[in-house]
Specification:
Layout: H1 17-21, E1 26-31, H2 36-46, H3 68-73, H4 76-89, E2 94-99, H5 101-106, H6 110-117, E3 124-127, H7 136-152, E4 165-169, H8 179-192, E5 196-198, H9 208-212, E6 219-223, H10 229-239, E7 243-246, H11 252-267, H12 271-290, H13 293-298, E8 306-311, H14 313-327, E9 330-336, H15 342-355, E10 363-365, H16 369-383, E11 387-391, H17 396-401, E12 405-408, H18 425-441
Parallel strand pairs: 1-2, 2-3, 4-5, 4-6, 6-7, 8-9, 8-11, 9-10, 11-12
Helix pairs in contact: 4-6, 7-10, 8-18, 11-12, 11-14, 11-18, 12-18, 14-15
């Protein structure tokens, strides 16, 4: 039975307009009711650390703003006019028509309309992202699959894979508030072991040329429990490209080194080159880590012993692994807000169980953050230990009232401006350590330690 979600930590499928915007010079064209696109931007960009409009985002996004007339008589004609006008006035390398609930209910065929208005010089594709199709994680998957089917397309002749070329399917742009820095770090560490990386989204991507290059990859890497997995399987069917599924986003030294070694094995890379990069990164990482030894000794009584991870499963599992196996902080519960299907839930539980015995049974799949907060408060009151909460702006008051450290990890985030921050990889692990232990000293936030006046 359905109910009201008080504090959602995701958007609807149309929120994947932000995934399109994350591809350099790609332009979404929205076929939906008035305000639908603006609300997606408001929540997933302005409400996710004030990330800005970017190229063709925000108020620049074309929309049909469908009214009652389109509901009664259909909106395909109006959409066609909007596409033509967009192609005339907006300079892009790819145009993606996306439907909202109104178009989905009426049955407007956005894929066909897009195909009718697509040209050799200006490619237009269509994606059914009506809100009732699911949340924006599922919408992101629909965009990935549609880009592969309609834009990358079939290959007429047998492809010779380019040695060392990989495609990465991982975090959801904007929904992952640190997506820009995360993708840069993922590309950096994979390049470090000798690979050429199609990162596909963000400032490190070359845009549509990378997407067109997808069939030439030697391997697809899925860094997520389930998001992007369907796209990798589609590439395997269409192009014969094998994929490596890594359900845990690597955070910190141990997980990142292990991840790079598995990639190296899968591609049969030069072991000496892989180990040389890992050795240099670990040496640097350990020097920084040792430098906080005095702090850990002096403030040990103030450092949190318990952690509550409230995020999507892409980040939540990786953060839990880092806390348990690198910092020695107990993860009391993991709250997965991304609404995976049953098969993915089993995979997530299994992965958490491999991190620590019993952790797989302590994951809660819940999309309402108000209910999550109630459960965290109950556990903190019962355990009476210092805690760190990985959450969002929804959790700020809870953290203050329970004197817990709050680490921002998911939307919405209204108290921070996010530029290039990341918690992924070697650099991300160090950044997380810095933020976590800085929270212990932040008297205006929640810790109230001896530095308080």
């Amino acid at each position: 039975m359905g109910g009201i979600i008080q504090e959602a930590k995701y958007s609807c499928a149309l929120g994947s307009q932000q995934s399109v915007l994350a591809i350099p010079r790609a332009i979404p064209i929205i076929h939906a009711g008035p305000g639908c696109s603006a609300r997606q931007f408001s929540y997933l960009s302005a409400g996710a650390g004030y990330q800005g409009e970017g190229y063709a985002g925000g108020a620049q996004i074309p929309s049909t703003n469908s009214t009652q007339n389109e509901v009664v008589f259909g909106g395909e004609k109006k959409l066609g006019k909007l596409i033509d006008a967009t192609l005339d006035v907006m300079d892009g390398d790819l145009y993606v028509v996306m439907s909202g609930c109104t178009a989905g209910i009426v049955g407007d065929d956005v894929k066909q309309v897009a195909e009718d208005h697509s040209t050799k010089e200006k490619k237009v594709i269509g994606v059914d992202t009506a809100g009732f199709r699911g949340n924006n994680y599922k919408g992101h998957n629909l965009v990935l699959e549609s880009l592969i089917e309609q834009f990358v397309g079939d290959v007429d002749e047998e492809i010779e894979p380019e040695k060392g070329l990989v495609n990465v399917f991982s975090v959801v742009p904007y929904q992952d508030v640190y997506w820009r820095g995360d993708l840069e770090e993922i590309k950096r560490i994979l390049t470090g072991i000798g690979l050429k990386v199609n990162i596909l989204f963000g400032y490190g991507s070359e845009g549509v040329s990378e997407w067109k290059n997808i069939p030439k990859a030697q391997l697809n890497i899925v860094l997520s429990p389930w998001v992007g997995l369907s796209a990798a399987k589609l590439c395997q069917r269409k192009y014969g490209t094998p994929f490596l599924h890594e359900p845990v986003l690597p955070v910190g030294l141990k997980a990142t080194s292990a991840f790079l070694r598995r990639v190296g094995e899968a591609l049969e890379l030069d072991t000496d080159k892989v180990e040389s990069f890992i050795k240099a990164e670990e040496k640097r990482y350990k020097k920084y880590f040792v430098s906080i030894g005095d702090f850990l000794a002096d403030y040990s009584s103030y450092i949190p012993f318990d952690a509550y991870v409230s995020a999507d499963d892409i980040y939540g599992v990786g953060i839990s692994d880092f806390l348990e196996n690198e910092l020695g902080i107990e993860v009391v519960k993991v709250y997965d807000s991304s609404e995976p299907n049953n098969a993915s839930k089993d995979r997530i539980k299994e992965k958490l169980e491999s991190i620590k015995e019993g952790l797989g049974e302590r994951v809660v799949f819940e999309g309402d953050n108000a209910l999550i907060k109630e459960d965290i408060k109950k556990n903190i009151d019962e355990r009476k230990t210092k805690s760190v909460i990985f959450g969002s702006s929804w959790d700020r008051e809870l953290a203050y009232n329970t004197k817990s450290v709050l680490i921002y990890l998911s939307v919405p985030i209204l108290e921070k401006v996010i530029v290039s921050k990341s918690y992924v990889g070697y650099n991300g692990g160090l950044q997380l350590i810095e933020d976590l232990y800085s929270g212990v000293l932040d008297k205006g936030f929640i810790a109230h330690t001896t530095v308080e006046k």
